[in-house]
Amino acid sequence: MNERIKELAIKSGFKKYDKDDGLYSPYIEGYELNDELEEFAEHIIKECIKVADDNFNKGFCPVGDYIKQHFGVE
Length: 74
Known about the structure:
This protein is mainly alpha-helical. The protein has three helices and two strands.
């Protein structure tokens, strides 16, 4: 799994244990989320790319503001 995805997952509340390289749900003890989390992150990244491309092609800049607005992120 991409290290940046791991960092963001931990920042978001997922648990990392020293016993292995996996990330685990903060809600279900012992449930490993590596594949699901990576797929989730890839979907977010693809959505960001789509938002950026759509708004750039319309002549809007900076694209980051449109991505923030699209996801409701401050």
